[in-house]
Amino acid sequence: MEKVKTLIIGSGPAGYTAAIYASRSNLQPLLYRGIQPGGQLTTTTIIENFPGFKDGIDANQLMMEMNQQAVNVGADVRDGAIVKADLSKRPFICEDERGNVIEASTVIIATGASAKYLGLPDEEKYRGQGVSACATCDGFFYRKRTVAVVGGGDTACEEAMYLSGLAKKVYMIVRKPFLRAAEIMQKRVMEQENIEILFNTNTVGLFGEQGVEGAHLVRNKGEQNEENYDIAIDGFFLAIGHTPNTELFKGQLELDQQGFIITKPRSTATNIEGVYAAGDVADPIYRQGVVAAGTGAMAAIEAERFLQDKGEK
Ligand code: NDP
């Protein structure tokens, strides 16, 4: 059994920043990169909203730099995923997929969240070529073009509003005859001239020679007046929710209704002493790389103070 002061689970901006801070305060952290090394950002292309890169930076490169920075300051960064976590008492016992057992005095959970997709084969086909789950990340590429946002919740409305400031036209594809978003958000999208809401509408597929050029839609699916039609679009944005990657901690950590880890106010501390949560796994609201990085730093600082208080540093 391997013993560590700090085990970090996840390799997005939260995990790597936690590793950098924890290493620099001599916690010799062990970081497991998980099944998607680099995290959600690696599904996008250029990042232009992470400060410090005046011309933007390739997302994969940014994550590789973070990885290298963590290694340079002494973090033990490993491939592989933690598949078992017993948080019932300290030290916490975790196990990776190869059966290696780790005894950790503190755990920083930075397992992120995954955007939900509709499950259409075309979403895979055009991923990075017109299909995106993050308007803030990719909207800029659609200036003066036509895009569609799928979903009728707050996220979809926010994304549609954001995109309406860049794109020529924004369709919202909403499967129900109403929006689920807060009233004020509904009002905003309804009043925005270049947003058109397609109610009772589902997406059946996407088409295009070089990237997305349009979507096949069906209105009133399963009804007598069912109608198939196409719209011409350059970008297809999913905004049907995110699933936090918290399966491993269910029944152990306090989660909200959607499964996000609940942290104490102004802190990354969870309901279990010595367990911290950083990044999107505990953030249903902002979901930005820079915010995740910030909470990663907080988690490492809190873990360090905790170990110091316990005389275990
Ligand atoms: P929601 O679960 O609130 O909404 C998801 C939307 O996507 C719904 O319109 C839903 O339709 C639709 N949808 C889900 N699955 C499919 C599917 N397979 N095909 C087509 N449509 C689908 O998720 P959000 O991400 O919008 O919000 C999550 C939480 O975060 C909410 O509590 C929200 O209020 C909150 N939030 C708050 C913000 C704020 O206050 N500023 C900003 C963003 C989010 P249907 O209604 O038919 O289920």
UniProtKB/TrEMBL annotation:
| Keywords on record | Disulfide bond, FAD, Flavoprotein, NADP, Oxidoreductase, Redox-active center
Look up the record and name the cofactor or cofactors this protein needs: FAD
The record ties this protein, via InterPro entries, to: FAD/NAD-bd_sf, FAD/NAD-binding_dom, Ferredoxin-NADP_redctase_2, Pyr_nucl-diS_OxRdtase_2_AS, Thioredox_Rdtase
A single Gene Ontology CC term:
cytoplasm
Residue span(s) of domain FAD/NAD(P)-binding: 5-296
Catalysed reaction(s) here are: [thioredoxin]-dithiol + NADP(+) = [thioredoxin]-disulfide + NADPH + H(+)
The molecular function GO annotations come to:
thioredoxin-disulfide reductase (NADPH) activity
Could you confirm whether the keyword Ubl conjugation appears in this record?
no
Q: Which GO terms describe its biological process?
A: removal of superoxide radicals
Question: What does the record give as EC number?
Answer: 1.8.1.9
Cofactor binding: number and manner: Binds 1 FAD per subunit.
Q: Describe the family membership recorded for this protein in Swiss-Prot or TrEMBL.
A: Belongs to the class-II pyridine nucleotide-disulfide oxidoreductase family.
Q: How does it assemble?
A: Homodimer.
The protein's name is Thioredoxin reductase
User: Which source organism?
Assistant: Prevotella corporis
